Amino acid sequence: MAKIDAFFKLMFEQEASDLHLVSGQQPVLRIHGDMERVKYKVLENEELQAMLYEITPEDKVKTFEESGDLDFGYEIPGMSRYRANFFMQKNGIGAVFRAIPSEILTAEQLGLPSIFTKIASLPQGLVLVTGPTGSGKSTTLAAIVDHANKTRKDHILTVEDPIEFVHLSRECVVNHREVGTHTKSFSAALRGALREDPDIIMVGEMRDLETIALALEAASTGHLVFGTLHTQSAAKTVDRVIDVFPSSQQAQVRTTLSESLRAVIAQNLFKRIDKRGRCAALEVLVCTPAVGNLIRESKTFQLPSVIQTGKKFGMQSLDDAILDLLQKGWVSAEEAYTKAVEKSRFVQFLKEAPDVWG
Fold first, then answer.
1. Domain topology for 5-101
2. I need a surface site. Which of 39, 138, 251, 299 has the fewest CB within 10 A?
3. H-helix or E-strand containing 37?
4. pTM of the entire structure?
């Protein structure tokens, strides 16, 4: 047992999502969104480096010492997987570990709308799950892939950095590829994927133009592609995909995206006030013919209005989702107001006048 495993055991017991180990500071856990210091001594650089290197593959140590940054996966059987990030900072080495539960929660257990099972059954196209870092994108995407794995007879290929949720082959054949270990980059894996007979491709992060272009190509040539982006709304997600391309290509990209996009899910996490834990508010955009026309005609600013009137297609605005959580008594009025788009809808629920900073 590695020395650092004691911290992972503490994470598990405290239901923490993240562990922060930084030279010159005490260890810190993020528990249900809040940072809480562990009653432990201040970590010295040499001690922490030895602790971290004990669980780091030898080739990864070399990569880290050359670049000052590293991502990889670590697993304690029977407990959890962890997404590890190492970095260099002013006082020496630092690391953050994100817990990836061994059990994949279903869409029903997560309380996701029924549209999500339909998304998992799509024959082809592009589905984007977006939101800030730590908003639960991976958990939502894992539930969708899990449903497909249980109900379809296809080949699912995932490309991640690092591998997070591990899907055992059920009705589908599932292959996981890790960037830096099994393939050089997301784009290299996507180029290879088109020759590996996949039906469903899950791209852990669409970081650059080449990866986005290849994902679009795969989605428009008969594959179902799931991907994540760090954007905060459905409309901004569409704009982000288009804006990454040179202006000379954007008209063609709009046409391709209008034909291949199937759905955008933008989500945000909230701290629950009725019990320990967090819950997600989801904005859902379904690419109907009307949505496709707006994308093609460069009128994405109208997408919020389409979401408001598209409930019969399974669409849902972020504010409506937040209001639902507030009325259930799951989240505080203050956090609902802070994270809402149209804050005026939530002023009535506040005990005090809203802060000028919003």
1. Beta-Lactamase (3.30.450)
2. 39
3. strand 34-37
4. 0.89
